[in-house]
Amino acid sequence: MDITNIIQNGVISAVQSLYGGEVGPEKVNVSITRPDFEGNYTVVVFPFTGIARKKPEVIGAEIGAYLVKEITEVESFNVIKGFLNLVVSEDFWRNFLQEIYQKENFGKHPSSGEKVMVEFSSPNTNKPLHLGHIRNILLGWSTAKIMEAAGHEVIKVQVVNDRGIAICKSMLAWQLFGENATPESTGSKSDHFVGDFYVRFEQAFQEEYREWQKNDEAQKIFKANKKEEQGPDAFFKAFKDTYFNEFSKLGAEARAMLIRWENGEEATLALWRKMNNWVYEGFAQTYEQLGVSFDKNYYESNTYLLGKDMTEIGLEKGVFYRKEDGSIWANLEDVKLDHKTILRSDGTSLYITQDLGTAHLRYKDFGFNRMVYVVADEQNYHFKVLFEVLKKLGEPYAHGLHHLAYGMVDLPTGKMKSREGTVVDADDLMAEVIAEAQENSKERDTTSDLAPEKQQEIIRKIGLAALKFFIIKVNPKKRMTFDPKESVDLKGQTGPYVQNAYVRIKSVLRKGMTPDPELARQYGPLEDLEKELLGQLYEFPGLILTAAEDFDPSVIANFCYALAKNYHRFYHDYSILSADTEAAKHFRIMLSTAIANALKNGMELLGIEMPERM
RNA sequence: GGCUCCGUAGCUUAAUUGGAUAGAGCACCUGACUACGGAUCAGGAGGUUAAAGGUUCGAGUCCUUUCGGAGUCACCA
User: Fold this and answer.
1) How confident is the model at residue A24 (pLDDT cuts 50, 70, 90)?
2) From the Cβ of A569, is strand B under 7 Å away?
3) Rounded Cα distance, A310 and A342, in Å
4) What is the 3-state secondary structure (H, E, C) of A55-112?
5) Class of A3-88 in CATH
């Protein structure tokens, strides 16, 4: 049993036998003792004052004495104000270390029998991936890893948004301005190649729009429709979508292309396939560099018509209703949401229709118990609606759905805006952090005896660790500021800092020997810092469950950092291989081994690889 | 405007879910190896947790109000 549970139960029976009262486990708060006080675990005694009718200090002393007497793991105690600090016996720590030091899968849990699907990334195919996708992908990937470590079977999927007006813009621009260029002929990365044509379309469109604004028709519309005090710039900015849909020649051509696509015209489909394949080739490189993969890709071109049959079922069940114009709606007022359109009056599907159908399809494909959507929090409302509708439809998985809503990524200069060219490209970003790691490595010259490819692999691991850790250490729910300058930092609270702790241990272990557990058992008394390190290790398996329940990888990042920090201190303050006694030496080798293991496993959950040297 | 979320040191952030003197990192200043890797360690300075009230043994955390910011409120995705 877990030590905190042992203490908790001990306190419950202490209260009962000392004061004759019942307390529930929720009233017994067992936490880790803050480092500036003596002890390992702390019980807050304030909640018992009502039952005991004594001063907190007295209650603490009485319960403390009871625990020391009744529980072998509790060695001694002290009471400060209403806080009962318990010292756990050294044998408990020694036994714990024996148990885990060579457990390679330390922290991971046995199978839960649950199947969880995680959807993340889900890019559009008209543009390369950017910083926003990176946060999404890192969260999705690590959430999947954490779910696995918590014992669940995990299926990683993405929905590729490969159809629609956006890709048609890229296609049209390529037709108009491409002159049969290819990624090979221009030497550009193929998803960037396609993205450049999307930009090219926007430029041409803006140019056309500016010209149009000068003509009489445009001026007439401006004068007739402008709001008071509204200048031409503000008006035409707001009018842009209307212009695209009703006046623009380029807009009309792009929409015509979308219609040809929907009608299955072969020439259009061929162009569409060609450009999407370029994009996939580029995405594959980016995903590989990031170190992520998927078990299955869903393509919007296959799923965009799904969900219509579900509207029929919804109508039969009375979950949906049909308006006079033929559109289909869901009334969600009973769950404090609005009325929501499920199908257009012309019978075509909407985003929500597709998502209903896709959820259903995926359940048929995999039969999961739970499903996590990693999508930015700007879509909170959409997912609330989606989940409520699926519940009303009685889908069997509907109560296992979760929207991992993460905050958007800002730059120090403000929001990323593609129009203003402030979007940080994913490939560029990775190249930058790796280049920075390269620079630092040159100065250090610690791996120059290795083959160049090995050195390069280490540098890649370091650079990506910096980037990934920087993003993932922040609580997903929070909007975060991404400072490119800080993201390449290799010192302080960073990925490389954690890697360095691991590398130091590996270096020691290479010089050391296989430890003898019997000899290590004779070591004592343990240093406070050693107990603290063991206490941290002890928390690791539970933290994985917490991270899984809360869908929060930052918990693991913070754990890795805190453990690495304490280990760096330990490494600095105490000798390992030249410790005073053989027992201490063997004990510390075992402790270091266990810590290296935990760091490696923890960082793996974040998608961060550990180098053996750096 | 309605609803939702957020506001912690100059900057980036944490706080065991209501617990002790609000922890870290960056930047700034001062120190530490002929020591197992200095991508390290120790120290200094930096805070009225946006503001005001309330709840209680105890509030960054819960409630109310105000201020500031973001998101959303489509037969878009």
Assistant:
1) confident
2) yes
3) 10
4) CHHHHHHHHHHHHHHHCCCEEEEEEECCEEEEEECHHHHHHHHHHHCCCCCCCCCCCC
5) alpha beta
Q: Contact, A167 vs A276, CB < 8 A? A: yes
Question: What one-character-per-residue DSSP string does A143-162 give?
Answer: HHHHHHHTT-EEEEEEEEB-
Task: Report, in ranges, which bases of strand B sit under 7 Å from a protein C-beta.
Answer: 4-6, 11-17, 19-21, 24-27, 35-42, 57-58, 70-77
Least confidently predicted of A225-234, A341-350, A563-572: A225-234
- pLDDT classification of A225: cutoffs 50, 70, 90: confident
Distance A554 CA to B65 C1' (A): 34
CA distance linking residue A344 with residue A346, whole number of Å? 5
Q: In what order do the strands lie in the sheet with A401-406?
A: A296-299, A153-160, A115-119, A370-376, A401-406
- Report whether pLDDT(A576) > 90: yes
Distance CA A560, CA A582 (A): 29
Please say whether the beta carbons of A563 and A591 come within 8 A.
no
Tokens 């503000």 sit on residue: A234
The gap between A473 CA and B14 C1' (Å) is 10
* pLDDT above 70: percentage of residues in chain A: 100
For chain A, the domains span 3-88
ipTM: 0.95
Tokens of A386: 């989606």
Residue type, A305: L
- CA distance linking residue A574 with residue A588, whole number of Å: 9
| Tokens at A482, concatenated | 């991404």
pLDDT at A333 over 90: no
d(CA A459, CA A463): 6
**DSSP element (H, E) containing A560:** helix A554-573
pLDDT at residue A26, as a whole number: 86
HEC per residue, A20-67: CCCCCHHHCCEEECCCCCCCCEEEECHHHHHHHCCCHHHHHHHHHHHH
Residues 189-218 of A with CB under 7 A from strand B: none
Report the alpha-carbon distance of residue A489 to residue A606 in Å, rounded.
18
The protein residue nearest B70 (Cα–C1') is A479
Q: Which nucleotide has the least CA–C1' distance to A336?
A: B3
Beta-carbon count within 10 A of A594 CB: 24
Separation between Cα atoms, residue A172 and residue A200, nearest integer Å: 10
Beta-strand relationship, A74-80 and A83-88: antiparallel
Q: Is the CB of A415 under 7 A from strand B?
A: yes
A546 touches strand B (CB under 7 A): yes
d(C-alpha A373, C-alpha A19), whole Å: 49
| Selection from A383, A471, A366 nearest residue A142 by Cα | A471
Beta bridge partners of A159: A298
* pLDDT(A223) > 90: no
Environment class of residue A28 by beta-carbon count within 10 Å: exposed (0-12), middle (13-18) or buried (19+)?
A: buried
Q: Cα dihedral sign for A542, A547, A553, A559?
A: negative
Hey, what are A417's tokens? 């805006």
